[in-house]
Each structure stands twice: as structure tokens, then as C-alpha cells.
DNA sequence: TTTTTTTGTGCAAACGATTGAATAGCTGTC
DNA sequence: GACAGCTATTCAATCGTTTGCACAAAAAAA
């Protein structure tokens, strides 16, 4: 930056004092005469002096910048998380530098590299779908570098993380479907390598088991892509045949549910009368579609807030997360809308 | 950062050479013996040396970081823009630091301040709804600091910017409604202080004028909040009365349209048979609601890409935007879906 | 008046990397 | 054997800020 920004040196030269004096005067150090302080501050004001954060970073080995790694900004859930992160970071004087991996491991690794050379003070991570080994994280953690994982959990012992109670959320959702009298419930599952997918599936299974219903493996279908096209096709195929047709769907997330909803409509099946439908994540559109989609809401903003709050505590060493690792699990909330209510 | 990151000095010490030698060896400067180069590179590799970007920034007065100011991440449109920005920035070795203003001017100003003290090389801005005077931008521009505005245009002569052709988009949308035989078309408008709102309204007016229909001011209603609740209420009130009831809506964006759609449904009005509906921005959900919403799609990703490409050119002085200011206008696309087709 | 204490400033090194200029040790030439 | 010319390396300053220590002058105590 050219920007002719005034520096401490400029002030010092102009006032015929040393840089040290200016520095101290600006920070109201004791041992500087009131007169000098006044003159320094006055000039600083006039020149619109703004401390050079880069120089400060270098000097203090602290950049007041934290890195955020997420798969994709355009996922509504992630954008709410970012919003929460931003909010707390900003009010604590931290900057947020953002990298999205587009679900790719190589991008994840190189993003971390650039961020590290930019001397970030800590990292908030929701890793990519491709990430199955976690050395690039655990190496950093061994060096005491502060990392908080959110939403997606790494297979690293004692990793500090914030997630939602996916198991419970899924359990509640399916239990609700059962209470509404639905019997043959399909689960459109997420990518099997993500912990969240497993948790949701387990919740689904538990609810069935509790109701004394034996799980039918043919009703559990993985939708790794997570787009509406995929689930449209899957659902259409599943419900085409009248014989032994399922009567409800619990989807891994709302986009998947939306695809399923369209498939059901194209088959002239009524929702919720013929088929009940519950999604996950409470995407922005869920309440606006017809019928409004029942879903499990995840507190995205809260996740972001919590994660960065913990990260800042790690950075400031206010709490020793090493001896007392923390895994925060936030509650989900089942939002019952029209798509799953038939009694 | 503790991180015991190896520095040039560490390598120098270990190898009993000076830092300068190490620096030059790493960059294959001429005048360093092959033997030394080999040893330096080998050790650098072994120590996993990574240049300190902060030190570099300070030295070179260039941070390879650009700042992005947007109103809110959770707006789908903005998140696609960010995605485009991210992509190009990353592949050019730039970092993105992100601040959302939550539509507040004070946040906007203080964000810019922090970003500047972090020595960003340039700024991409979509300013807040509250921003009505632009001194905080024009001051910077006078100092030749690179800024590109997107989506929202400041009242600054010669500001470099990227927008979509909102006028044309709105015009096409309303023309389409007219072609479908709708006659009394409501416009649920955006905040009147934003240029985009004006442009869309003008497009609406032009289409009407062309069709020889006199604009009825009572059919143009501002929805400054832009949430579905607001437009729900407005729409309900407008359509409640059978007498002289409007027969179509052109909404300032899809959320507003979605609110209107719910209101219409609650009045048992059929879409598109009784009332036609077109939104704006092609939010993710628009294709998934029932009926699927016709809308004007804005190329968010492309906007991001274009804006940062121009910014990088300004930063690298590849092009002189000062003598030849540029205002890029990207085309929108009318996506005709069910909500507006009745013939 | 001399010594001690206080007050206000300045010096210089440091953070990590770069870079123009200086220098040391060669080899080769006349 | 003196000196030019080359190669490989080091010196030192620089970017903007902070901070331990030294130091001078003035004020207070002896």
C-alpha cells in the first residue's frame, strides 16, 4: 500500500522527539510529560495516524487474525456459522480470513499453509468430505497451535470441538414420524465417511428399535452428493412401486428432502397424507416450500459463536483445553411443520 | 504464534552462513554456489520452512490480502459472490479477509479501518443500506487506493464497479408477465435509497409504459425490510379485497416473493392461474417451492470473479482504471418457471 | 554544596525477510 | 609480484513498532 499512511516515525520527526517517545505517548505510558503526550496525540489525530497492524504482528508474533476453513460458503448452514464467528471475532478485535475448500483435501491443505504463513493465531475448521486422515491438523495441535473443529469431527483424540447433537436430533425426528403413525420410514443418508451421517443414522435406528420396528437396510440409502437431483431420482425409484411402498422419509438435510418432495409430487403422492417428510438443518427455504418442511434446526450462529469463543480462550490461554479437552454439543430443535403432521 | 516455526535465521545459524545467503539460496539468486543452495534447500525442507508472510508484508508494503465488505454472508446472492471472489483470489495467491456490516454504517467504517491497518492491498465493497454518503470511500480513492464496488453503486464519479443490469432484468420480468396476460401488476419494491431498487422499479415502469398501461402508484409498495413476514402482510392486505384485485406481482427479490406466495395461498388464490408471480435473484430455494418461482437470476459467482479480477489488475497496475474508469454490467437471465405461466 | 531521587527522553535491539554495497579469497594476466 | 576480475559470501539498512536500559537534567534531600 502506498496510501502515504503516517507512521510513528513521521510524528517523531515532525515533533523532534524519538519514536519511542511517540509510541509511549500514544499509549499513555507513565513517564511521558503531559505536554508531550498532548502534542503527540494532537499530531497523530491530525495525520490520521493508524498503527500498522503488520508491524505489530511481526513484533508481537500475534496477528489478531484467525483462519476459518469451511467446505462451502453457499451452504446456508455454514454461512450462519460464519456470521456467528464474524460477530464475536470482530467485537474482540480479531480479523477473520476465510478459505473454502470446495470439499477438496488439497485445497484444505494449501489453505492451511497460506494461513499459517500469514501467522494466524488460531484456526476454526470444518474439514472437507475428502478428508479422511488428519495429520495436517494433529501435527499443528502437537505444537500447541489452537484449533477448534466444528460441525464435522476429526478422528483426533482430545480435539476441541463444537457440534450439534445429531444423534438426538435424528432420533427426535424419526420418533415424531412414528408418533404420527408412519411405519415404513426411509432414511436418505449422508456420506458415510462423515461422523454426522453416522450419528443421524444411529438416531434413526434407535427410534425404530425403540418402537419395536426392525430396520430394513433397503430403506437406508446413501445420498453422498447431497443435491436435489440425486434424491429426486432415488425417491422416485423407491416410491414408484405401489407394493410395499414406504410411507415416510427422514432426509439427511433439507436439500435432499426438497428433492424427495418434488419426486413425491411428481408421483402424485400427497404430503403429509400419503408420505411424511422430515429434513435436517432448517435451510432458509424450508418454511417457504409447500407443504412447509418439518426439519431439525441446527443453531448455526450459536455454533460459530461458541467455536470462536473457545478458540479465543485457547489463544489467550485463559483455559487449559489441553488438560481438559472440551467437546461442546449443542441442542438441535425439531421444527414440526406441515410435511409430517397427519393426525 | 509460538509454533516454533523455522526462520531464515535458524537455517543460517545451523549452516553457519548469513541470512542473506539463505534468502538468496532459497530464491535461486545467481552468485550462490550450487553446493550452498543444495544444503540450504535441504535444511529448509527438513525444517519445513515457510516464509513469514507478515515479515514479507512489512518489508514489501504489500500483504497479498484483499478486504471484502458485504452486508450479510447469509444472503445467498452474497455468498455466491464471495465464492467467486475466493476462487480467483486463492488462485492468484491472495487472501481474503471478510467483514460483514449487517447493513450498518458504523460497522462499515470500522471494518475498513481495521482492514486498512492490516495493510490490505485493495477493497471489494458492497456497502450497507445505511450508507448514503461516501466520503470514507472517496478519500481512499483519492489516495489511489484500489477499490471495486459490486452490486451496489456509490455516488462517486468514476468509481470502478460491477453490477448486473437490474433495469433490463426487471423490464424482462414484467414484460413476461404482461405477455402472459396479466394486467394489474404489483411491484413489491426494495429500499428506495439503493440504486438497484430504483433500477428495478424503472424497468417495471418501462415495461408497463411500453404496453400502454398507466402505472398505478398504489400498486408500487416499498418493502424495505425484505423479509417474508413483511411481504406476507403487505400482500395479504393488497389482495384481500376482491374488487379491483391485482393479478400479478413482481417482487424485488425472492424472499419477498416467497412471503407474497404464502399470503396468496392463505387467501386461496391460485398461482399462476389467479395471480402471476416473479421474483428476483434466483435464491437456492426458488426452484424448490411450489409452484416453482419464476425469477431473474443474477450471476453472483461471475460478479465476484469479475470484481476481483479488476481489483487485482488495479493493484498490479496492469490497467489504468483512473484514466479509463470501468463500469461492468453483467446480464441477468429471466428464469421462467411455473409461478408466472398461464398460457 | 554534594548526593540522591525523580522525571522525561533517547538508544538500540528485536520481530523475519530482502537487497544494494562491501569484502574476502581466488585465478589469471602482464 | 602487483593488480584486475571474478565468485561466493557477508554487512548493514530497511519496513513500523515496542521495550529494557541508559542517561541527562531537574528537583529534592542531605
TrEMBL record, chains A, B:
Gene Ontology terms, MF aspect: DNA-binding transcription factor activity; transcription cis-regulatory region binding
Occurrences of domain HTH lacI-type (ranges): 6-60
Top-level taxon of the source organism: Bacteria
Signal peptide region: none
Annotated InterPro entries: HTH_LacI (IPR000843), Peripla_BP/Lac1_sug-bd_dom (IPR001761)
Keywords associated with the record: DNA-binding, Transcription, Transcription regulation
Short name of one Pfam family: Peripla_BP_1
Keyword Transcription: yes
PANTHER family linked to this entry: HTH-TYPE TRANSCRIPTIONAL REGULATOR GALS (PTHR30146:SF109), LACI-RELATED TRANSCRIPTIONAL REPRESSOR (PTHR30146)
Protein name, entry field: LacI family transcriptional regulator
Lineage, uppermost ranks: Bacteria, Pseudomonadati, Bacteroidota, Cytophagia, Cytophagales
Amino acid at each position: 500500500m502506498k496510501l502515504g499512511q503516517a507512521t510513528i516515525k513521521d510524528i517523531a520527526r515532525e515533533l523532534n522527539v524519538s519514536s519511542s517517545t511517540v509510541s509511549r505517548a500514544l499509549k499513555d505510558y507513565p513517564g511521558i510529560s503531559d505536554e508531550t503526550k498532548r502534542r503527540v496525540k494532537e499530531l497523530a489525530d491530525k495525520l490520521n495516524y493508524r498503527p500498522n497492524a503488520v508491524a505489530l504482528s511481526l513484533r508481537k508474533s500475534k496477528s489478531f487474525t484467525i483462519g476459518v476453513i469451511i467446505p462451502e460458503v453457499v451452504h446456508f448452514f455454514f454461512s450462519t456459522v460464519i456470521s456467528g464467528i464474524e460477530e464475536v471475532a470482530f467485537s474482540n478485535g480479531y480479523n477473520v480470513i476465510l478459505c473454502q475448500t470446495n470439499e477438496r483435501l488439497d485445497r484444505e491443505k494449501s489453505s492451511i499453509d497460506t494461513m499459517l504463513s500469514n501467522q494466524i493465531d488460531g484456526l476454526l475448521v470444518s474439514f472437507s468430505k475428502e478428508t479422511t486422515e488428519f495429520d495436517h491438523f494433529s501435527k499443528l495441535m502437537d505444537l500447541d497451535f489452537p484449533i477448534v473443529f466444528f460441525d464435522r469431527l476429526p478422528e483426533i483424540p482430545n480435539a476441541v470441538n463444537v457440534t450439534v447433537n445429531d444423534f438426538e436430533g435424528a432420533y427426535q425426528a424419526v420418533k415424531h414420524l412414528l408418533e404420527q403413525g408412519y411405519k415404513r420410514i426411509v432414511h436418505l443418508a449422508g456420506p458415510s465417511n462423515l461422523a454426522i451421517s453416522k450419528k443421524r443414522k444411529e438416531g434413526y435406528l434407535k427410534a425404530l428399535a425403540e418402537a419395536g420396528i426392525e430396520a430394513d437396510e433397503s430403506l437406508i440409502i446413501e445420498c453422498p452428493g447431497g443435491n436435489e437431483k440425486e434424491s429426486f431420482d432415488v425417491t422416485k425409484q423407491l416410491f414408484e412401486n405401489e407394493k410395499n411402498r414406504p410411507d415416510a422419509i427422514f432426509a439427511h438435510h433439507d436439500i435432499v428432502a426438497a428433492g424427495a418432495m418434488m419426486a413425491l409430487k411428481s408421483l402424485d403422492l400427497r404430503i403429509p397424507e400419503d408420505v411424511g417428510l422430515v429434513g435436517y438443518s432448517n435451510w432458509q427455504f424450508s418454511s417457504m416450500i409447500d407443504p412447509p418442511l418439518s426439519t431439525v434446526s441446527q443453531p448455526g450462529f450459536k455454533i460459530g459463536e461458541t467455536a470462536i469463543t473457545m478458540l479465543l480462550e485457547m489463544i489467550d490461554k485463559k483455559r487449559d483445553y489441553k488438560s481438559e479437552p472440551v467437546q461442546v454439543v449443542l441442542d438441535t430443535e425439531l421444527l414440526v411443520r406441515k410435511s409430517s403432521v397427519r393426525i
